[in-house]
């Protein structure tokens, strides 16, 4: 293999020498390209210290691959880390002709991100999906290799988009290689190659090539020891030694880190260059786009002639061709860091002069800022405009950097405070809450208006809560909300709801007194319910009434709030509030309202690209689908939630998977997930997690006929039914379990509490639940009347799961009364509904009861999905629902090519030939492979 990569030693030249000993690494990189040529795809992160040979590997890879694949290569620059999507724009500059073939939301997202059109800020995930689409289109005719060197200098927005796309690569014919000094957490989970120093033998050979004359053995050994096998250090450090030092052993020693020593050596080598040539190199280092025309124009501003270019090229520091490039990325950083502040300002001023204010205003503003020492309102104002554009493109981190620098250059203390607050808010939105708090500390010493003071308090509370999630967060948010009353009522309401959410987050594990205090403050600050019809005000007051005065007092306001959310056109803020409206629909036992709200929230979140809201919206939709008996649809929603969680790191626990496993009677999976959810809830202080685990276990054990265990899980919720939601729904499960175990007193207690949360509501669904529960504790005609009333109401509300379960209970009761013929009629109907909907445990109960009545019925439980991978199942379910490849890709954040690839494998494994055969083929499968 060595002969494949390297010439004989006698022919070896310094450009190839750093590749010595890299056979394994080169083979892995070439294998990645080979997979792309074969129609597959993949990504690789290459990390290692500066000078260890990453760039040499990439040079070799791109040179060898150029004859077989399309290659796009960029080098990220430290000077552009604050420009949103700067790195991505360079990578995609030759691909944007394909943007028109992307789905409209993706095309708009990436064009807005690159400043090519004006629109609302795009979702980062839509930009990532658009990037995946562009790469796929570029690889349509020929496999594609994308290489990003010095990826540690990528701007945050570009890094996240690339990480997004890299994780979704599968079958597109794309190879993506990212080289960086230290592994960046944003790329965690991707295949990773760590590049280490050369071995002793290879290091000796490299030194021999770098220093053709005699080298004192003590100097050689010390250089090898100090360089730690770093190829660039081995080549560059000897150049800083005099002939006497090389021959006699009088070496240079330094306590500087190796990277600094390499840069120092590079600077020493460039020091003999004429001053104009060094200034030209600094100019090129400060302008990372590599545009030769821009470099020529800026050099003319500085009075640098052709002789400066000739001297720089003779020193082999950089090359000017179709693009300007340095012989090694470390040369760029060495030149820039070694320059004096005055020289840096000179070159940035020249670059600002020749950068188009119309076509590249943000880069021009940044150069102007870098050239400015004293406060300058004109420069600060340009930076503020750039921040607005960055926000529009979805670059919150970039907006924060622009605003922070704008504040530094603002002469007026008042406007400086204003910009510092805006910068802090942008930093918080970008996830840098600690940086936001630092900026707010700087703003405290400046003259602020009352509104600005209130905004500082609010932002400090929000950032602090985001960092600590402590019990004091609700009180700080409450103080901020009170401070905004009379200054910004809309923002005050938004802060009140955040305070209430923070206070109620813990449920039984939180502080009840704090919940009451926040709720009372909301009631004191908001108008009575009959004085407003705004959805936001109504839901805020309704939730506060629920927390302080209970369900009965809150019902009228919650009903009005729900109607308002359904009837009014929501603004962007209300999208985040719809979770409270959906929770109200659950507390109101209103399945139709919950369906409408869940569908609407999912639709809006998708349309606006609000992926932070989408998992919660999908969770609500999943509950609706399960209530409707569409367990397959619910599983598809879980698939989409998992896809988003994988991309975003959203910590939403697997509530949906847990409840699905419980309904399907999958004991091992449900018990494992319940244990995980319960432990997670205790660790995070989230009482809702305990309710989810208890409710799901009660459903599971009732379905399996393990009623004593269902009692144990259900009775844990008895003290907490005031929390409503899952806690109150567990009461019905507890009545059923206790009735079967003969614990009459416990069943009556659960029934009484259930009546307290259903009778006041009075909806058909609530009354059906109450009738079903009460029927289990009554006898004769009373029980029959209640069962029939419940069945009729469930059928009217289109809730098949409860129709089936109620008929099962009625059939069991008829069997106990010695009426087997009537029992069989109910049990056959129950079995038909329950088995068709996939409630295997309850269906088996119905079959067992039929057997007891004298009729044998075999339950056809669904088969194993072990033949299909989880991703294949995800794709197959959505294809079964009639979605196109592009639509499936958008849901699961993968490319249409990957969808097609997985569908082909699904067809082969299931022995089918077309999509219309998916529904019956998948009817025999269950999602045991999906346990996330």
From TrEMBL:
Q: Which residues form the HTH luxR-type domain?
A: 861-926
Q: Which organism is it from?
A: Streptomyces lividans 1326
Q: Does the keyword Ubl conjugation apply?
A: no
State the protein's name.
Putative transcriptional regulator
Q: Name one GO biological process term.
A: regulation of DNA-templated transcription
Q: Which InterPro entries match?
A: AAA_16 (IPR041664), P-loop_NTPase (IPR027417), Sig_transdc_resp-reg_C-effctor (IPR016032), TPR-like_helical_dom_sf (IPR011990), Tscrpt_reg_LuxR_C (IPR000792), WH-like_DNA-bd_sf (IPR036388)
Alphabetized SUPFAM superfamilies for the sequence = C-terminal effector domain of the bipartite response regulators, P-loop containing nucleoside triphosphate hydrolases, TPR-like
Output the PANTHER family linked to this UniProt entry. TESTICULAR SOLUBLE ADENYLYL CYCLASE, TRANSCRIPTIONAL ACTIVATOR DOMAIN
Task: Give the UniProt keywords, A-Z.
Answer: ATP-binding, Nucleotide-binding
Record carries keyword Nucleotide-binding: yes
Provide an example Pfam family for this protein: AAA_16
Q: Which GO terms describe its molecular function?
A: adenylate cyclase activity; ATP binding; DNA binding
PROSITE patterns associated with the record: HTH_LUXR_2
Q: Name one GO cellular component term.
A: cytoplasm
């Amino acid at each position: 293999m060595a002969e494949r990569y390297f010439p004989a030693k006698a022919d070896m030249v310094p450009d190839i020498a750093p590749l010595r000993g890299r056979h394994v690494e080169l083979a892995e990189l070439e294998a990645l390209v080979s997979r792309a040529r074969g129609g597959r795809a993949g990504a690789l992160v290459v990390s290692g210290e500066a000078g260890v040979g990453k760039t040499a590997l990439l040079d070799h890879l791109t040179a060898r691959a150029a004859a077989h694949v399309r290659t796009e290569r960029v080098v990220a620059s430290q000077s552009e880390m604050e420009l949103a999507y700067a790195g991505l724009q360079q990578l995609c500059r030759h691909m944007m002709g394909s943007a028109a073939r992307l789905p409209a939301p993706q095309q708009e997202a990436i064009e807005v991100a690159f400043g090519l059109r004006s629109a609302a800020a795009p979702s980062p995930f839509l930009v990532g999906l658009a990037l995946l689409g562009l790469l796929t289109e570029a690889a349509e005719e020929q496999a594609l290799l994308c290489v990003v060197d010095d990826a540690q200098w990528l701007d945050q927005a570009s890094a996240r988009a690339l990480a997004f796309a890299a994780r979704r690569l599968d079958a597109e014919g794309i190879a993506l290689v990212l080289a960086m000094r230290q592994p960046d957490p944003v790329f965690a989970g991707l295949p990773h190659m760590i590049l280490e120093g050369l071995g002793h033998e290879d290091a000796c050979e490299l030194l021999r090539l770098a220093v053709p004359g005699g080298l004192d053995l003590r100097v050689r050994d010390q250089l090898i020891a100090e360089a730690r096998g770093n190829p660039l250090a081995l080549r560059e450090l000897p150049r800083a030694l005099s002939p006497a030092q090389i021959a006699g052993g009088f070496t240079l020693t330094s306590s500087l880190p190796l990277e600094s020593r390499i840069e120092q050596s590079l600077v020493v080598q460039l020091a003999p260059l004429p001053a104009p040539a060094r200034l030209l190199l600094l100019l090129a280092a400060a302008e990372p786009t590599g545009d030769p025309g821009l470099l020529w124009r800026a050099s003319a501003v500085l009075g640098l002639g052709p002789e400066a270019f000739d001297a720089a090229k003779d020193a082999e520091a950089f090359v000017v061709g179709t693009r300007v490039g340095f012989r090694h990325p470390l040369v760029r950083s060495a030149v820039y860091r070694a320059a004096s502040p005055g020289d840096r300002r000179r070159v940035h001023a020249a670059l600002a002069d020749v950068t188009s204010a119309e076509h590249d205003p943000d880069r021009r503003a940044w150069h102007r800022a870098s050239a400015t020492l004293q406060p300058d309102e004109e420069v600060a104002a340009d930076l503020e405009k750039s921040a607005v554009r960055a926000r529009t493109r979805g670059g919150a981190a970039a907006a924060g950097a622009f605003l922070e620098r704008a504040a530094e250059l603002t002469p007026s203390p008042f406007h400086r405070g204003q910009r510092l607050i805006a910068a802090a808010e942008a930093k918080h939105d970008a996830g840098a809450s600690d940086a936001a708090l630092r900026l707010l500390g700087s703003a405290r010493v400046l003259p602020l208006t009352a509104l600005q003071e209130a905004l500082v308090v609010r932002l400090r509370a929000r950032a602090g809560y985001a960092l600590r999630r402590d019990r004091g967060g609700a009180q700080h948010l409450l103080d901020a909300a009170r401070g905004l009353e009379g200054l910004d009522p809309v923002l005050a309401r938004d802060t009140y709801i955040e305070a209430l959410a923070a206070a109620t987050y813990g449920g039984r594990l939180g502080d009840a007194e704090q919940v009451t205090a926040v709720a009372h403050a909301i009631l004191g600050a908001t108008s009575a319910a009959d004085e407003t019809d705004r959805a936001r005000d109504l839901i805020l007051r309704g939730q506060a009434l629920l927390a302080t005065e209970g369900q009965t007092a809150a019902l009228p306001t919650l009903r009005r709030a729900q109607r308002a959310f359904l009837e009014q056109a929501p603004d962007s803020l209300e999208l985040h509030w719809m979770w409270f409206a959906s929770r109200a629909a659950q507390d109101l036992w209103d399945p139709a309202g919950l369906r409408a709200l869940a569908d609407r929230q999912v639709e809006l979140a998708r349309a606006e690209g609000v992926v932070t809201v989408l998992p919660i919206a999908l969770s609500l939709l999943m509950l609706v689908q399960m209530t409707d008996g569409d367990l397959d649809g619910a599983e598809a929603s879980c698939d989409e939630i998992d896809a988003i969680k994988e991309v975003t790191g959203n910590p939403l626990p697997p509530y949906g998977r847990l409840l699905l496993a419980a309904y399907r009677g999958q004991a091992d999976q449900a018990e494992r997930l319940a244990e995980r959810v319960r432990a997670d809830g205790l660790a995070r202080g989230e009482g809702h997690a305990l309710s989810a685990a208890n409710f799901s276990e009660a459903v599971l054990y009732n379905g399996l006929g393990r009623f004593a265990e269902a009692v144990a899980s259900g009775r844990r919720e008895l003290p907490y039914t005031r929390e409503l939601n899952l806690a109150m729904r567990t009461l019905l499960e507890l009545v059923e379990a206790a009735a079967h175990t003969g614990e009459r007193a416990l069943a009556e207690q659960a029934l009484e509490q259930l009546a307290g949360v259903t009778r006041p509501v009075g909806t058909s669904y609530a009354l059906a639940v109450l009738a079903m529960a009460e029927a289990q504790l009554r006898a004769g005609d009373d029980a029959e009347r209640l069962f029939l009333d419940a069945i009729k109401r469930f059928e009217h509300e289109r809730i098949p799961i409860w129709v089936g379960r109620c008929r099962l209970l009625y059939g069991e009761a008829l069997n106990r009364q010695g009426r087997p013929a009537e029992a069989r009629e109910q049990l056959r109907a129950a079995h038909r509904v329950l088995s068709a909907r996939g409630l295997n445990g309850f269906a088996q109960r119905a079959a067992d009861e039929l057997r007891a009545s004298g009729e044998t019925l075999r339950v056809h439980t669904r088969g194993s999905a072990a033949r299909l991978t989880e991703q294949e199942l995800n794709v197959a379910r959505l294809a079964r629902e009639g979605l196109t490849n592009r639509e499936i890709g958008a849901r699961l954040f993968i490319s249409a090519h990957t969808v097609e690839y997985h569908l082909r494998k699904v067809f082969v494994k299931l022995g089918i030939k077309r999509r219309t055969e998916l529904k019956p083929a998948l009817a025999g499968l269950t999602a045991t492979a999906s346990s996330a």
